[in-house]
Amino acid sequence: MSGPADVPKLFEGVRSGDRGALARAITLIESTRPDDGAAALRLLTMALPHSGNALRLGMTGIPGVGKSTLIDAFGRHAIDQGHRVAVLATDPSSQRSGGSILGDKTRMEELSRSDRAFIRPTPSSGLLGGVARRTRGSIVLCEAAGYDLVLVETVGVGQSELEVDRMTDLTLLLMIPGAGDELQGIKRGIMESADVIVLTKAAGPDPAMHRTARNALLNAIAFLPPRDSGRRPDVLLTDALTGSGVPELLRHVIELGTKDKASGYQQLRRQDQNVAWMHQAIREGLLERLVEDSALVERIDLLEGLVKRGETGPFQAANEVLERFRTGGAPRP
Amino acid sequence: MSGPADVPKLFEGVRSGDRGALARAITLIESTRPDDGAAALRLLTMALPHSGNALRLGMTGIPGVGKSTLIDAFGRHAIDQGHRVAVLATDPSSQRSGGSILGDKTRMEELSRSDRAFIRPTPSSGLLGGVARRTRGSIVLCEAAGYDLVLVETVGVGQSELEVDRMTDLTLLLMIPGAGDELQGIKRGIMESADVIVLTKAAGPDPAMHRTARNALLNAIAFLPPRDSGRRPDVLLTDALTGSGVPELLRHVIELGTKDKASGYQQLRRQDQNVAWMHQAIREGLLERLVEDSALVERIDLLEGLVKRGETGPFQAANEVLERFRTGGAPRP
């Protein structure tokens, strides 16, 4: 943002369905500039009462599994069915130099042409983290803008995928059979956080492999504890290129979403997620406040030099910074 | 730790090569109990001057790629060659219920029998994070205990693998050909942080596939910028079950390590890593200090209820906590 943001006007733009306003609103809450913080807080506070009406879907899977292609096909089909679709990418793996080798430009090309779709590419991650405020806040803004399907895409075989599970209603785990031994590869944490497992590229040269993989997965799932929803994930076969399985996938997730809403489970889950959001905002806010203290930032610069030259240990230096931060700049007596 | 730790005695045990003492020392620095913090800091400060003599290897790759099996074979071969090997696991994906479906007990079984090996399983991750102090501190302790090869294992297609790259001398990226389209799947960030790419399971039914994959990777690598070391990664073929390629892999990494030490690059890299360590310790320490403030923790409990019932927004609640923390408990006037 250049200059202070006109929050009420921005909010009005978001509510009216102006995609440019939505993009600027997300940019505001992604901003790490200290003076944008208060405006972002105001904007989110205004948007929150208008949020909550979308089905929030997390989509996760290792690189190469075909997430973008499936989201493209899935999103287009959902739009054909009357939905409005927002896609938020949280992919952390390209942070170093941005983008996959094949380039991010070709991703979700067809979907991005629809005026009932909003696609937000990976934010540049910066040093401060801030994924919580960004992605959770972006979901709230997309909902306030009237999108009723919000897809949060992440590369996941670890932390990031569990993060996404903590901010969506349903987590879709995308897999391809043949990527090594399925069972060996699947950690409990990942399987347990999946509401639906999607086997991609099912129209490939060996369809029997997909059926075999599906059976093996269902067998493995039977040994896992059910999710908090009381369910175990089903395994669906899709092929984004031919579109096969895509309508069934949409129907399946809408059905799960409707069930969870009716039973009250969705609300319980979102309440817990809001508490987690608070905790995450505390973690991120601590660091943001630290870097607002310019005397402390200067001291950190100096300590960096000492640590670099081996004149002090990294944890001793960190300890000093922590003491100074807590006591408002002065070292403790 | 039950009761206050006798740090000098513990340190002496670590230095004398007592594996039980080393395990207890790591437990101490992993502890999130506020009263263990000072002891952990003393221990690390004592150990730091005795550290730095190992070659630090990060090993990363998606689940199912065969990390544990390769580390087992690699570690045993290194011990045969006179090395002492420590293995630290940082796998974040099993945090929810711990362990893969096949169980962690069978991992690195043969290596764990050697008295020249030290294997530290995945720490329970806790809510506070603390990976920095834990893993970096564990490396320092293993080196002070005389291990000259420290392997840090992580599941990586994202954040965690870049973390490990920031605390080791060389990053080994493990891959299996056939897991989808290699090029599609490889994000620049991951490729760029690899010093060596290891294709695993090379003695499988289709050895030609490995050679083809190696060539495709080398072609892709040629398009990437070189690492800060000035090098691009080589691609090695290994098979942990037959042991083929394992001696070549050890020779290769030792050679790279020796070169980087002679050129001064290793020292530069470690200096930068120490600065990053300091920053990470600050981030983690902020949160640890917050939870030491019992009045604030009580207020957080109360806010959780308000957020849960929708009576306040998560970011508003977070904001209040941040204000109170900074002003030492009292809300800002």
Fold blueprint:
2 copies of one chain form a homodimer.
Chain A: H1 7-15, H2 19-30, H3 37-47, E1 55-61, H4 67-80, E2 85-89, H5 109-112, E3 117-120, H6 131-144, E4 149-155, H7 159-165, E5 170-175, H8 182-185, H9 188-192, E6 196-199, H10 207-222, E7 234-237, H11 246-263, H12 265-292, H13 294-308, H14 314-326
Helix pairs in contact in A: 1-2, 1-3, 2-3, 2-6, 4-11, 13-14
Plain-language structure description:
Two copies of one chain form a homodimer. By secondary structure, chain A is of the alpha/beta class. The first copy, chain A, contains 14 helices and seven strands. Chain A has helices at 7-15, 19-30, 37-47, 67-80, 109-112, 131-144, 159-165, 182-185, 188-192, 207-222, 246-263, 265-292, 294-308, 314-326, and strands spanning 55-61, 85-89, 117-120, 149-155, 170-175, 196-199, 234-237. A seven-stranded parallel beta sheet of chain A has the order 3-2-4-1-5-6-7, with helices on both faces. The longest helix of chain A has 28 residues, at 265-292. Chain A is globular. The two termini of chain A are 42 Å apart. Residues 92-105, 124-129, 180-185 and 329-333 of chain A have low confidence and may be disordered. At the A-B interface, helix 3, helix 6, helix 7, helix 8 and helix 9 of A face helix 3, helix 6, helix 7, helix 8 and helix 9 of B.
